[in-house]
Amino acid sequence: MIVAEAVGRALAACGVGTVFGVVGSGNFHVTNALVASGSPFVAARHEGGAATMADAYARMSGRAGVVTVHQGPGLTNAMTGLTEAAKSRTPLIVLAGEATEAQSNFHIDQAGLAAAVGAVALRVTSTRAAVEQVVEAYRVAVEERRTVLLNLPLGVQSAAYEGPQDVPALVARLLAAEPPSGFPAVKEPAGSEVGALVQALESARRPVFIAGRGARHARRELEELAERTGALLATSAVAKGLFRGSPWDLDVSGGFATPLAAELIRAADLVVAWGCALNMWTTRHGSLISPGARVAKVDLDAAALKTHVPADLGVVGDVADVARKVAAQIAGQVAGQVEAGPGYRTPALAGRIRAEGRWQAVPYEDESGGGRIDPRTLTIGLDELLPAERIVSVDSGNFMGYPSMLLDVPDEGGFCFTQAFQSVGLGLATAIGAAVARPDRLPVAALGDGGALMGLAELETVARLGLPMVIVVYDDEAYGAEVHHFGPHGHPLDTVTFPPADLAAIARGHGLAAVTVTRAEDLAGVAGWLNGPRDRALLVHAKVTGERGSWWLEEAFKGH
Ligand SMILES: Cc1ncc(C[n+]2csc(CCOP(=O)(O)OP(=O)(O)O)c2C)c(N)n1
Ligand SMILES: [Mg+2]
């Protein structure tokens, strides 16, 4: 067995799921060893796609993501997706061939590249301890929630593996062992910090919980605590859907918040952020948090307590664990609190949340006409047609709020939001990774024309995998975000506007079904596809109106 084979076997034995990648000579053997050991492999058509698929797969499956790439350009092609994963603290392992000889065309400083985007660079250096090195990379990814580049020097890969030959047994032993020193174990929350949060909740009249990425596993615990304390429930965009079905669910806080959610979050006297940094998006640059409100944060990462909107009080620990501990101390307080004042869980407020708590219920004037459909009309129409069991992935751009706000999702596993790097072009690959993780749900990719054309290579992957995906392209024949950013100031827009592209024909050329939508009636084509065998993906080429910029975009421009 050569080292490359031992590495593949070891990673498979760690329990990783589907592996994504683009195979070249430098990752051929390691990828084949993963496949031979039972890890399904999805060949992407561009490493940028592969990295984002693995990221989305990890987010939606709860397992570590794995992507394999060729040395040099294979890795540089993957960098945007890897940056998104690193910023999102996705546990992701990148297996990359590495040309260590400076005269090789493929040679670059791969470790330096990883460090530059916030990933951890490790390397397999030993023919004897290669398996130990793989397990260490896996543990850093999972236990520290990091994107790890595991460099595989070509010379080491091809050498004979000299460690214990029963690789799965060795991996099992290593994983069962205590974490080596240097790994931060999940911290037991300090009693004093928990006590301070208990007190804050007991004295609050209008508490709101905002749950972020770090709370996606803790719905039950947070709902129970909210029940006891009369708190309303909201999420960051990344955790959208977490409280779906609760009568106290305000949906997303931030630029995508409904007017009602914004009003109620602004009126809170205590905001508790659970695994949520309260960044500029989640708080509309802080404006959703009243200056008089107390802010509490619960986070695994002590540094997160001070970033963005800083916490008045913080608890370092796991969200579910802290919520459980706080609830245990607060038991019996509820009745008193409800009697003491209206709190935030009055019947009147429940009625308002029911009536106004979703964007679908917010009135608007349909501006469809002249061969173009209003994106709100398009999205509401799709929301009504598409089955509730869906998994929505959204690209970046002016259009992005429409699907984020108007396509309902069944729970936190129904929304995949790869926007930590704000890169255009990751949407389609995100939808593929999410679809592979959750084959029980209808995958929906929402893209702008710019993002769709940037990520187009993966249309063939959608077709090849036979994914029953609905790809919605909001086509305004422009980089709408730029048009609306600069247009009002009278700047020339020739660099950011384009002639029509027949995206439906492009999709058909890849073997997909396609429908062009210019008015609400055209959505009948989507209904027809839904009622059919769904044996190939559908691209909905929506020619959307583009006269105005979106209100969430104005928020974005403040962040430039
Ligand atoms: C990789 C990358 N390139 C450029 C940008 C700058 N940018 C932000 S939005 C946008 C336009 C995207 O166009 P499209 O996908 O059609 O969406 P629209 O804004 O038109 O709704 C661009 C170019 C970016 N965020 N990421
Ligand atoms: Mg566009």
Bound molecules: thiamine diphosphate, magnesium ion
Percent helix: 25-40%
Helix-strand category? alpha/beta
Number of helices: 24
The N- and C-terminal alpha carbons lie at a distance of 52 Å
Shape call: globular
Q: Which value, in Å, is the CA radius of gyration?
A: 24 Å
The strand count comes to 18
Please state how the strands of the largest beta sheet are arranged side by side. Answer: 2-1-3-4-6-5
What is the oligomeric state here?
single chain
What are the segments in which pLDDT stays under 50 over at least 5 consecutive residues?
Answer: 335-342
**Percentage beta strand:** 15-25%
The pLDDT mean sits at: 95
Largest sheet: 6 strands, parallel
What does this entry look like structurally?
The protein is globular and about 70 Å long. The strands form three sheets. Strands 2-1-3-4-6-5 form a six-stranded parallel beta sheet, with helices on both faces. The protein has a six-stranded parallel beta sheet with strand order 9-8-7-10-11-12, with helices on both faces. A six-stranded parallel beta sheet has the order 14-13-15-16-18-17, sandwiched between helices. β17, α23 (524-531) and β18 form a beta-alpha-beta unit. Helices cover 40% and strands 16% of the residues.
